[in-house]
Amino acid sequence: xxxxxxIEEVRKQMKAWRKEGLSVGLVPTMGYLHEGHKSLIDRxxxxxxxxxxxxxxxxxxxxxxEDLSTYPRDIEADKKLCESAGADLIFHPAPEEMYxxxxxxxxxxxxxxxxxxxxxxxxxxRGVCTVVSKLFHIVMPDKAYFGEKDAQQLAVIRxxxxxxxxxxxxxxxxxxxxEDGLAKSSRNTYLSGEERxxxxxxxxxxxxxxxxxxxxxxxxxxxxSHMKALxxxxxxxxxxxxxxxxxxxxxxxxxxxGRVLTAMAVYIGTTRLIDNFxxxxx
Length: 282
Ligand code: PAF
Description:
This protein is α/β, with parallel strands linked by helices. Bound molecules: pantoate.
């Protein structure tokens, strides 16, 4: 497995693989890889001849008061995980390699990025779409892999790919959870012991909401109120949002029908965690 920080090197490698007629899968990440990322790499390894993992903490998707400087990084551990999962190349650029000092071009989806996390993080998805577009242009993969934990991100990327006619298959992969239910996230490392226990309210609310839907409940207010009550009972938790929306358009709904995304962002202490489930109503 190779590691490079150079766009030119990646392009050279891609040309060589293309010449041999090999298919390429891309797994975009911000590093500090865990089992959730590994599941994306495993799937990419199964479905492609070659797999590239990008490992880049993208500065332009962080808001001014967010955790860019403290976001966890460990490239040596990332290398080991990628190697053991069978990836072929890690692209680990410096910010200067990705963004010229006078960088001024952005990719932005409207509507789909406005609700849910877009309310609290108004420039976040513009940063995500811009970096993902750049990675797509650099690697030109056949398929790209994203986790369903970031369900709105996945909807935004699918929309961007459709709207801009990018010839890349977007593959969504299921949420990977700890044994006790907490969704895997690089940000879980911010939690103290007490906060780690409190963070279980997110998955508890997810499982409770899903069960209500499985039992036939379709009243959005009832489901969301029940989930909010569960979360609010935890003193360390502060709800940013709990909402049910159409899973593709991210438009709010009042009655559950079709493919419904129930998503939440909750502060546990100062750490903002997200979780969700998707349910298809028959
Ligand atoms: O999901 C992430 O880790 C990031 O938002 C992504 C897609 C790698 C873009 O920086």
